[in-house]
Amino acid sequence: METLQNEKGQISIHTENIFPIIKKFLYSDHEIFLRELVSNAVDATQKLRQLSSFGEFGGELGDLKVTVSLDEEAKTITVSDNGIGMTAEEIKKYINQIAFSGASDFLEKYKDKTDDKGQIIGHFGLGFYSAFMVASTVEIVSKSYRDGAEAVRWTCDGSTEFEISPAERSERGTDIILHIASDSEEFLNKGRLQSILDKYARFLPVPVEFDGKTVNNTSPIWTKAPSELTDEDYKNFYRELYPMSEEPLFWIHLNVDYPFNLTGILYFPRIKNELRFQREKIQLYSRQVFITDEVKDVVPDFLMMLHGVIDSPDIPLNVSRSFLQADANVKKINGYITRKVADKLNDLFNADRKAFEEKFDDIGLFIKYGILSDDKFWEKARNFVLLKNTEGEFATLDEYQEKVQANQTDKNDMVVLLYTSDRKQQDAYIESARRRGYDVLQMDNIIDAHFINALEQKLEKVHFVRVDADTLDKLIDKGLNNESVLSEDDQKKLKEVFDQVLDNKMLNVSVEAMPTDELPVTITMPEFMRRMKDMSALSGESSFYGNFPATYNVAVNANHPLTAKILTETDADTQKSLVKQVYDLALLSQNMLTGADLTAFVRRTVATL
């Protein structure tokens, strides 16, 4: 083999300095230099292992690992491996001859492949050059695994000039030595490097050592077959990822190799009735290298509240591996995850319905949001999404419709599903409905206003009405009219009394024939208006209905003894006091009586005792 001579040359690009281009267009986050260099070292190590398995390397593999070293005094960071190493010719080929002719040509060639952040899309093998974001000079000392290979040193100061010379290295492998620039001395800190390694190297497949200890788990459970794992393995891994979280409800092990490669584990956390989009709870890896926790598009939006890990080499990233790119594989992966989650939920429902019902208060938010946002998910979820009534009883959509159809079908052959959004506040209305033999659903989930709308569109001849949205006879209008004990003239007079005393244009007063055991006055907001306001409140954005002044219907019970007393009262002050009392009583039943009005009501009540 020819003896290596000292050599100087120029990196094969025709521009004064490519590195500012790399910094500006490829890497926005300087800390990823360590991810890139450690990943390259892992690749070199794995290549040697592959060559050995192919019979192309007959030597001893030894203790394969990557070592990161910090010398604060010398102001260097070194990434070392004992992988395949490089010859001088390989360094010239892979390091010097960057695959473009110049910075201007490079940008011109790829101008149509940049995203809206100016990030160049694609893979160009430029990871090594991220070293120049933090280093004023970079050295490579390498010795190839090939028999008789000589050690070689490559040095570059960030210009296009390099120097190759013989080096001293007894074992195969590569050292990348970074002489840290003055503006990047933040990285000459043990804690800083440790945090970067904890973030990016946590599950690399080759042991990575730093500060005398191994920093990674080389065989995370998503790389293993589900048959090899126990429930405790999954729970322990969850604790490793999220040490401060409650135990998950259950999990889904993802494993597919066609038409794309994807592995991972998604956990269903306990979230109760909170719509918390913590979009940093699912971590995306590529061959066990951490990429990002921004997994939008890869994971369906309704599952962004899940926790866990996804690992795929087939997810397209830009050159800096910082941003996901739109791609057919991303859509396929998104669809696959949706299908797997739906299948898992369906299996849980069919295998142990009681256990599924016990979890539903936690997982209902996922399922309902999925139904709202994904028609394909709805096709499967309609079989296992559950409705819960105020008695705590669960039923599927079909089961519930069958249960209430006989008693809750109105004159238009529409099945009316009554619901409450606040069981305590609407208790009086719930009790009135029960006396009629009606069933009331508990729909107090934060997205239930939207969910109800979706079900009305997806189900035939079904209508949801909140139990306090109207008087009981009108909630489920069966075309039966109660007789009034008051004449039409008396009803007209009674309405005039209430209009005069209440004197509020936002109140629509009517006198209606209701059972005597109903309240003398009932206050309701029309279902449409209330639902629009609920949805507006959830979206956090102002809307026409959200900003529209609240209008209430005030139904006076013509058949209640108190209304007859009001009508026949001759003293104007007493009559006014009675009207205020029954009206405030109706407000109180809706939890709408507050402040000075509540104080006045209490005083009037005490005075009559």
UniProtKB/TrEMBL annotation:
ATP binds at residues 36, 40, 81, 86, 101-102, 174, 321. One of its GO terms (molecular function) is ATP hydrolysis activity. It holds the Pfam family HATPase_c_3. Keywords: ATP-binding, Chaperone, Cytoplasm, Nucleotide-binding, Stress response. The keyword Chaperone applies. Belongs to the heat shock protein 90 family. This is Chaperone protein HtpG.
